[in-house]
Amino acid sequence: MEQIKHTHVEVRGLKLHVAEIGSGPKVVLFLHGFPEIWYSWRHQMIAVANAGYRAIAIDFRGYGLSERPPEPEKGTFMDLVDDVVGLLNALGISKVFLVGKDLGAIPANMLSVIHPDRLYGLVTLGVPFILPGPASLPTDLMPKGFYVTRWEEPGRAEADFGRLDVKTVVKNIYILFSGAELPVASDDQEIMDLVDPSTPLPPWFSEEDLEVYGSLYENSGFRFPLQVPYRALKLDCGISDPNPKVSAPALLIMGDKDYVLKMPGMEEFIRGGQMKHIIPNLDVTFLAEGSHFVQEQFPDQVNALIISFLNKNSI
């Protein structure tokens, strides 16, 4: 971990935190999910660098050690896409492999459609091909107390999270999101109430890891992370093509026990081959017993899959 170098790069008026290791001619850019941060790629960054690639992970604007925009509540997914392009330009990088997880998979998908010339290949984890917009997630088909529905309501998550310290909020979300069932609250509950305080962390997530996550979210707060993804998910993303295509080779890694598979229509969409119409050169891999945090839970397996994909498409 001490080999990973940390800098700030000014992009579109904000200083973005950049973690980097390795010096290979090909660059792998990692985009984190929620409640993740650059640190969630620690295992992958080191493995990819050891395999001869230059590994870069960022904190999105408003997350972790990156600066928060002056008006977080106006944030959109296009901000993240433009930040990635701006960062690549600032670093003089013309083309990358993009690896996106959860929240980070969405701007990765968008960038692969809007700027196909900037990609060698696309790896996504935990979320299939989704573009922001009114039809992004069928929340009308979700249970009433579904966490996305709760958190997209302005002020509700802030009040819920505000009852606890930041580290406990992150711990609770990790516990909830590493389960196989959808996080759904009853009418007399908030999402944080779903976790018994005595519940231990997942065995692959240490107290030291939690300290890192807690300190980073204490620095950034949750204003922008609640806006993007949750409150920006149904905003039009500006991609008007009704049949978007991803020309780059792609890999989707899912855990068999990922709660995302319980969302209406999601497992059928992933397993049924429908994504091949959007991403013709797509491979989908399921990891048995894998949760939504599969890259932290089974780092060796995920590392092997990613490095195999990189090597295959670096010829």
Helix tally? 11
**If you average the pLDDT, what whole number results?**
95
Counting helices, strands and paired strands, the structural category is alpha/beta
Order of strands in the sheet with most strands: 1-2-4-3-5-6-7-8
Detailed description of the structure:
The protein has about 325 residues and is of the alpha/beta class. The chain has helices at about 40-50, 75-90, 105-115, 145-150, 155-160, 165-175, 205-220, 225-230, 265-270, 295, 300-310, and strands spanning about 5-10, 15-20, 25-30, 55-60, 95-100, 120-125, 250-255, 280-285. Strands 1-2-4-3-5-6-7-8 form an 8-stranded mixed beta sheet, with helices on both faces. The longest helix has 14 residues, at about 75-90. It starts with a strand and ends with a helix.
Which helices and strands appear, and what pairs or packs with what?
Blueprint (H helix, E strand, L loop, with lengths): L4 E7 L2 E8 L5 E5 L10 H9 L3 E5 L18 H14 L5 E6 L3 H10 L4 E7 L21 H5 L4 H6 L4 H12 L29 H14 L2 H9 L18 E6 L10 H6 L10 E6 L6 H4 L1 H14 L3
Parallel strand pairs: 3-4, 3-5, 5-6, 6-7, 7-8
Antiparallel strand pairs: 1-2, 2-4
